Amino acid sequence: MKRAPIKPSIPERSEDPRVEVALTVNGQDVRRTVSVRILLSDFLRHELGLTGTHVGCEHGVCGCCTVHIDGKAGRSCLTLAVQANGCEIRTIEDVAAEDGALHPIQQAFKECHALQCGFCTPGMVMNILSRFEESEPLDLSENGIRDMLSGNLCRCTGYINIIAAVRRAAELLGRE
Amino acid sequence: MKPPLFRYQAPRTLREAISALSSDADAMVLAGGQSLMPALNFRAANPSMLVDIQHVQGLKGIIIENGNILIKAMTRHRELELDPNVRRANPLVAEIMQHVAHVPIRNRGTVVGSLCHADPSAEMPLLFVLLDGTLVAQGPNGTREIPAEQFFHSFLTTTRKQDEIVSAARLPALPVGAGWAFDEVTRRHGDYALVGVGCVFQFDESGRAHGMRLAACGISDRPIRLKAAEAALNGTSLASDDLDAAVHASLDAVTQSDDMNTSISYRQRVLGALIRRLVATASQRVQKRSTQ
Questions:
Q1: Do A148 and B103 touch (CB under 8 A)?
Q2: A28–chain B Cβ distance below 8 A for any pair
Q3: Under 8 Å CB-to-CB from B23, ≥6 apart: which residues?
Q4: Tens of pLDDT, residues A38-91
Q5: Which of residues 140-179 of B touch A (CB under 8 A)?
Q6: Given B7, B42, B103, which is nearest A151 (Cβ)?
Q7: A112 and A145 share one domain
Q8: Interface contact B291, partner A, CB < 8 A
Q9: Which of A62, B144, B150, B283 lies most in the core, judged by the most C-beta atoms within 10 Å?
Q10: Which domains does chain B have, with CATH numbers?
């Protein structure tokens, strides 16, 4: 069997077409020239160093990479950075106050022990936050909360404490 | 970097978008990306160029006119789900939306994109087949309107031509007094359906069903009307014998072979159970609506 020849050197630049994107991330204007195929999740993590947005499955199932795109929760792994051109992005880094005081949803997660390893938590928080910020009425029944969380996978907690945290967050935010 | 190499264009007008598509036989349209981006990340799709239509003028919004809901190409699932006028015109839409993935996916994914993706287990194609919706396709040679039943060809395949863009989809409102229902069986909430069934009909003055529409997804290579079951129920009082006959008549429609999810015989049982359940639900809603 003939073996593939070893290439003399790795090309310094990829053949990717590059494009300039300008967007707002956590209130700050950002401008970068990136490959057209970089995912928003990788853009946030590798280009901007915002590693709070986690990357799990990279095909939209686990929900870890959830961020706000123009005020609504969306999967950053199912969005190209170039699609977010001109958009307002909000990530988990923007949720706590500048002095470090936790947002009521984060406070509720802490109080209810709604995280163990914490890998899914940023996506959970961004998803829940988006629903609390929507003008639609919230269904805070057991089933309603389970439906709200159904697009976010957690492999540690069994969800019970996360459901409790959503209820607690609703109390803290006066949304009952 | 998960997606394969591609070129990218973000045209501002439909004409530019169509000409970009016609310039390259391997170009694909990118709208909300909630089906295409996973396919790219898996490298199951390998387009030479993506034509991103999100900035194209005139492709946003929902218009209700002449008993139809016109859904433009960049309208997200969640917009259609929450629109109060759509809820009034066609309450089946909000019911069916509860089964489409999860809210963060519905925030980004477009209704027309889901129709063009044409997954045989997906809910939006079923809705359009159930209610005889149409798709407005625009290409270099003009515009044509394609009935949903002719649009869905087979697994992930439609009769849209490579150089056409579906600029909108037209969904009829529910007939006045009609009952409606949708439900599906999935392994996990938000997944594609193993089997999903939609049902719409009215009662005539003597209490017999007419205008019966039944459609199913997940049982074939595309969403299909269950015409034999409809015929078995039209003109009847929906007695238990009539339902037995309808369920029996529907079984041949299941052609999706055994796969990693389940078997033909399980799909047939689920289909039968859903038909019985949904005819009952829809029938309660007809009565409720007519007594108001």
A1: yes
A2: no
A3: none
A4: 999 999 999 999 999 999 999 999 999 999 999 999 999 999 999 999 999 999
A5: none
A6: B103
A7: yes
A8: no
A9: A62
A10: 7-52 (3.30.43.10), 62-172 (3.30.465.10), 179-291 (3.30.390.50)
